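User: I'm new to structure prediction. If I give you an amino acid sequence, what do you actually give back? Let's try with this one:
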Amino acid sequence: MTLADTTAAVAKMAGAADSIGSTIKFAFKGGEGVIYLDGSGDPNSVSNENKSADCTVTIDFQDFNDLISGNLNPMGAFMSGKLKIDGDLGVAMKLSSLFG
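Assistant: Good question. You get back a string of structure tokens that encode the predicted 3D arrangement of the chain. For your 100 residues, that looks like this:
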């Protein structure tokens, strides 16, 4: 998948979910770009803007695609070091409502 494809998939998921009340940035290792989810309004919005967020999740681009497709367990990814969370951990816990 390309960044555009992945962004569209996240936008579809975010649009179907309730507002999360926070902002989250997914920063991809290796410079593939970012996906910025603004859940402070209703509905949630998604872009590729690289701006500050309440929580930043750093992950390999392929691992992220596996995560949103259900092929990678979020807790397992965190425990094995495949993803790193900076900022508000409570915000990261809200991701299950989007991807769960």
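You can read the tokens as a compact description of the fold. Here is one thing that stands out. DSSP finds five helices and five strands in the chain.
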